[in-house]
Amino acid sequence: MHVRRSIAALGALALATIAGAASAAENNYVLTLPNQSGTIVGTPFTNETVIYTIRADTATLTSYPQIANFPLSGKCVTASSGSVQIGTDLPVALTGSNLFCTADAGTLTGVYFTGANGWNHHLDSGVLDLSTPGSSVGPGPDHNLAIPYAIPITGGTLSITSDNSSGNTATAAVVAVAVPTAIPTLSEWAMIVFGFVLAGSAALFVQRRRSFT
Question: What is the pTM of this model?
Fold first, then answer.
């Protein structure tokens, strides 16, 4: 009886370990800003759509007492990677330490390049639910609090020299990252626990055979 209970407990632990390993939730946080002007790696552009894409895990979601140096609380996720696309050009990697934030008051939603209280490019149009794929805000007005900050990117820097001059067209959205279909694998701890389960099963089998002989 004790052997059976031990095997059941080990099996439950293995399932819990496997479930814990599958709890990550990575999303793309996309800020789209039409009609922007500036320079990228020394090349000027005018009235182009700028798209920032920040990839981050919801496990990094953190509350801040204020963001963008305003007396407004908010939440941010920490980027594992990021990129910026100007018009129809190919995306270029953002190389700094970036956050994607939104204020609890429904403003300041966007990319923060030097921390929650640093330079940023954002829109003011409702609270973006950073933890839920499919959430979106906008269209609304954008504000560039990165003038004249040089945003580090692969090969040089990006500078946005003006806010959107054509009105309320900026948007932000949370997009789930597609997870490729793969054969499930066990973590190292799950493999160890699974080994104990097999060993316990073997011991129970031997014990039962002895009881019949």
Answer: 0.75
